[in-house]
User: Fold this.
Amino acid sequence: MAMNIKNERVHELAREAARRTGSTQTSAPEAAPGAVPVRLREQDAHSGPQAKLVRARALVDQIHASMADEDRAAMRADLEMMYDEEGLPA
Assistant:
């Protein structure tokens, strides 16, 4: 499948990678450090379930840090009104 890249800098990088590795301009970027497969693996590492959990926990920490004691008390009061003593909706 053909690919038409209209970015001279990308072409230059492909040419240089091919020259240094002795490969073709097509295969050089695939094998080069920082190539698309590497970037995709990095993206997967930052978007997987564990990474999402880490970001969610950081967000919760930010929310807690931004809340005043009065805010926490108001939230507890609202929750107590919404549920009975057995934890069921009131």
About this structure: The mean pLDDT is 83. The chain has five helices and no strands. The radius of gyration is 26 Å.
